[in-house]
Each structure stands twice: as C-alpha cells, then as structure tokens.
Amino acid sequence: MILDYLILSFKNLKRRGVRSWLTLLGIFIGITLVVSLVSLGNSLQLAVMSQFGVSSTQVITVQAGGVGYTPPGSGVVKYLTSEDAREIEKLDLVEVAIPRNIETVKLQFNRKTRLVAAASIPEGEKRKYIYQLLDLTAEKGRLLEKEDSKKIILGYNFFDKDKNGFDKKIVPGKSVLINGRKFKVVGIIEKKGSFILDNVICVGDDDLKELAGYGDEVDLIVVKVKDKDLMNKAKDEIENLLRKRRDVKKGEEDFTVQTPQSLLETVNKVLGGVNVFVIILASISIVVGAIGIANTMTTSILERKREIGIMKAIGARNKDIFLQFFIEAGILGLIGGVFGAIAGTILGYFGAMELNKLMNIFARPEISFSLLFLAIMSSFFIGSIAGVIPAMRAAKQNPVECLRG
Amino acid sequence: MDEIIKIENVSKIYKTGTTKVEAVRKLNLSVKKGEFIAIMGPSGSGKSTSMNLIGSLDLPTEGKIFLDGKDISHLNESALSQIRGKKIGFIFQQFNLIPNLTAKENVALPMLFQGISSKKREKRASELLKMLGLKERMNSYPNQLSGGEQQRVAIARALANDPEVILADEPTGNLDSKNGKIVLDFLKSLNKKGKTIILVTHDQNLAKYAEKIFWLRDGKIEKVTSNKK
To answer: A2, A170, B12, B159: which could form a disulfide with B24 (CB 3.0–4.6 Å)?
Structure first.
C-alpha cells in the first residue's frame, strides 16, 4: 500500500515546476554543510593524530619538560632516563615502555651535506613493538631487524629527489655518511603524511648513542598500555611514578604524559567552535527549507483542489489523501537531502585535499556511510514533518467544494 | 425492497455568512435497482445538490438517505468515502481524470482505495479499457487524449470497482454529438446489463434515454414522467 502511495507521489513530483525544486535549496544547503563539515572534521582528526606520529590509540607518550607541545629534544630541562622507562614498564597496566631519542645529525649523500633528525629504534625484541606502535611498514627494501647494525631506514621524503635536498633519490642498498661514519640504507618507510615521520632517519639505538653520545638520557618514552579502556588510569599511574622519581609536587610537573585523547581534545576544542557556527548555519537553512516545503505543499493543495475532490469522489478516505501529501513532502525533503549529501561529500573531499596542501599533512578524506544515511533519513523526516499540516488540510477538504473547483 | 437509493424528506441548507440558502427542500426520491433515471432541471434547481446527496458526496441537513438499504446520513467522512468508492461510479462533465496518471493508472486508482492488490488492479483496468475501445491508449496521459477518449477512460474508471450505481453528471456536456452518442449508448448498454444509471442533465434530448425523469425546480421535485416504450 505505502509503495503505491510512494509511486503516486513520485508521479506528482515529476510533473512539478522549477518553483517546487527551488524550495529544496534550504534542505540542500543545510545537509551539504553538515555532511561536508563532519567528514572534514573526521579527516582532520585523523590527520592530526598521524601528525603526532601516533596511530595507535593505546599509546601514551612521556616527555620531559613542562606543559606544552615542545618538539622532542628541544628545550628539555631535566632528561628522562632509560631507568625511568624500565620503571614505567614495571607498572601493571603497561605492556611495554620504549625509550626513544631524537638527535640532529649530519647526513652526507651525493656529495651534499644536510642536517636531519635521526630517531632511535630500540634494540632487540622491542623493535617490532615500535614498528607496530608507529604503524611503520617498508615501502622499499625492509625495516631494521633485530641484529642489524650500521644500517638505517629512511622516511619517505628521502626517496623523493625534489624533497630530500640531495638532488638524487636515496634507495635501499646505497650508503650514506652520518656524522662522518658510513651507514647502509636498507629500507624506505611508507609515506605517512606526517612531517616528522616522512623526514626522519631511523637509526638503531646503539648506533645513535655512539653517534650522538646521549648516554643514559632519553628524549621521550613511548608506552603501550595493555587495555585501551584504562588509558587514563595508566596515565595517572605513570604521572605518580614520575612525580616520586623526580621529586615534584602535583601541579608542578617538569614532564608531560600525553594520551591520544588529550591530543584529540585540543583538536576537538578548535573543531567544536567551528562546529557550533556551522550547526547554527545549517539549522537555519534546514528550518528555512522546511518552511519552503510547507509552503510549496500548501500551494500545491490549492492547485490540486479539484484532484483531491476527484480522489474523494472515487473512494479516497481522508487517510489516503493525507498519506499522499505527507509522503510527497517527505520525498521533497529526501531529494534535497540526497543531493545535499552528495554535494557535502564532494565538498568534504576537496576540503580535505585543500587542507592537505595548506598544512602539508595527509588527511585521508573519509566517507562515512552512517553519516550519509543519517543525513538522508533526517531530511526525509524534516520534509514529512513540514508536510504534516498541509497534508492534514488536504485531507480535510470537502469533496463537493473541491469538485466545484 | 429492491430500492438501491432512497431519499426521505431530505433538505440541504447552505449557510453563507448570515444568509441561508435552501438548495433542496423536503426531497423524496427513490431509485430501484437496474433503473435508468434522469434528473432534469434548469440551473439553480438544486440539481447539483441532489446529485451530491445521491452520490453521498455530501450529507443532508435534514432527512435520511439510504444506499442499498443502509442509512448513510450519519456516517463519518471516511466511512462514506469507502462506501461511495465501492457502490457508486462517477462520470463528470469535465471528465475529471488525474492529469499526472496514465489512462490505465486512472482506471486503477479507485481499486487502490479499496485495498485491491496491484496485480488485480492492473488486470481489471486493462480489461475495462479494452472494453471501451482504448486498448492503444492505455499508457497515454489525459492531455494526450481527445475529449471522447477521456470520457471513455472516465467511464472505465467509474466501473472499476463494479459499482451498482453509475452517477453521470452532464456526461456529454463537453463532447460533440458523435462522442456524446457513444457515451450514452454505452450507458444504455450498461443499464441493460443490470447497472443502475442516474443521469443528471438539463438537456431534454439526453433525458429520453431514461425510463423515468425527475423534474426539479426550486429544490423540489415538480413532476415525475416516464418514458416507457
């Protein structure tokens, strides 16, 4: 039965004038705004996460220094030590704690010299953990293995001769000089879209220690937590432990413990402001759209008065007339919503692309089907709600008056 | 007892502002099953109001209307629609087809409101249109059809739910004499097959098709004549 009314409504809509379609602009714009913003926001969150070099949600980063996002290795007052890492690893909630160092080194290749960041890769069994935590895979060649020594892997940009500053791409098998010592390149890391990871060279911890002489000092400790639901508890435990070890009071910490959530909170705060603005804008246009639909439906009832009279004469009950107009209004909303969802997806996609160019990141455009479904369904809902009163009016028309014309 | 329509002391008063217009006054009229009757009268005689009352499109201010033995004067609008759709087929002067629907869809529409399945609706609509010589025009829209064709589609639609009564309001008013004759001959043949036909007209030439003529003037029946051959 409902299907028959759907078909009837479609037939009526098909023959409608441009005027009716214009009233859909409100719904269209509203849905476009919502869909594009939400998908852009999602991409942005992902991009920010990858920017910090963290792809796993189970990772806590510990850095020396006060509150604030100081780049690793700069302005550090009191270093963390590998002893700190060992103690953190003893905590119940912690699966593994990996000390990491990032040093500036001189890289020579193709008779050119550049200063680059070198990150340490732990020795032994922990190597595979760090690959997992940073989601590192080799684009060319392979990653560093357990017994590798005097070997390195490079961030993706070294593979690009326009970006690496050596006028020649560095491929696995080549040798380079780091602070005057010879190292063999064994692999190129897959493109991560993160400025840090794409421009770094990864050196085994023992090799880097020898090159830079940092001894027992550690720039940051990467902690993997056993259960991602206990991230905040683990964070508290780590903070307690470090406060004790470094003898500082609560609130005066000279170190920071960051969870991915705390990174996201900052991003969300910024996005939240934009969100509120766009939601207000979208709501206004959706309300305008709903009024537009109510208006076009009311006009349509006046135009089709005779039709209503005929339908009643041939046996249509009030319910039948109501349903037809109600569904018609819903479909009007639905059509606005479908086009809005398409436009919003496209806008979100290109928005993410532009953002990438602007911020030199890699935000993968996200298409969320549940978002699209929700947007389209709610536009049908808005349309039909806008159609309730006109449809009730249509249903209550007196057949005799309608037939009189 | 074989009265299909019986109107007892029916009055219909329209109020416009403070003035009351009595369109029909103490009307008494009965139609037997299988009869072909005509309601004649000049404009303003209460012809249209009587037709609306007989066709259960409107309810009386006073009096009772029986359709197939059932008092319908106090039914609510939806119940009335349901009965109307089942028992009465309308044919109008202006054809009154739904412009967005094809001939076949127009014919099938009354059956939709009676809850008949789409397969059955389609089958019956095709049969009816074939019967009226419109086999080739089934998928045409009303604006692609001539007046005569449109009225034949309207007749097919009136027959869709196999009603007992066909109520035709000036069915030839917008047709040339040739098409007018086709329509009237068809109504006559339906009557021969047992359908009750009520023709509302101001044209005496049409009235001669009917067995019995009710002459209306000033909302009352002036006289009843019969055309028995």
So the answer is: B12
Domain count, chain B: 1
A249 close contact with B: CB closer than 8 A:
no
Q: What pTM does this model have?
A: 0.69
What is the Cα–Cα distance from B35 to A332, expressed in whole angstroms? 48
**What is the Cα–Cα distance from B225 to B37, expressed in whole angstroms?**
10
Mutate to test the interface with B, among A15, A305, A306, A314 (most CBs of B within 10 A): A314
Any domain includes B147: yes
Q: Is A317 on the interface with B (CB under 8 A)?
A: yes
Domain annotation covers residue B46: yes
Whole domain around residue B116: which residue ranges?
A: 36-60+75-226
Alpha-carbon separation of residue A316 from A123, A395, B160 (angstroms)? 81, 10, 14
Closest CA to A390 of A299, A308, A286: A299
- pLDDT per position as a tens digit, A323-359: 999 999 999 999 999 999 999 999 988 888 887 777 6
CB contact under 8 A, A403 and B57: yes
Please give the angle made by the CA atoms of A296, A301 and A305, to the nearest 5 degrees: 155
Give the CA count within 13 Å in the CB-facing half-sphere of B181.
2
| All residues at 6 or more sequence positions from B21 whose CB lies less than 8 Å from its CB, including other chains | B13, B14, B15
Q: Residue B116's Cα: distance from chain center in Å? A: 22
Hey, are the CB atoms on A315 and B58 less than 8 Å from each other?
no
- ipTM score here? 0.92
Say if residue A129 is exposed, middle or buried (CB neighbours under 10 Å; 0-12, 13-18, 19+): middle
- Pairs of CB atoms within 8 A across A/B: 66
Whether residue A115 is predicted with pLDDT greater than 60 in this model: the reply is yes
Answer yes or no: do A312 and B96 touch at CB < 8 A.
no
**Residue A15 near chain B (CB below 8 Å):** yes
| Residues of chain A found within 8 Å of residue B85, distances taken between Cβ atoms | 314-316
Looking at mean pLDDT, say which of A58-72, A208-222, A385-399 comes out highest: A385-399
CATH number, domain at B149?
3.40.50.300
Is residue B114 domain-resident? Answer: yes
Burial class of residue A25 in the structure, from the number of CB atoms within 10 Å of its CB (0-12 exposed, 13-18 middle, 19+ buried): middle
d(CA B97, CA B67): 25
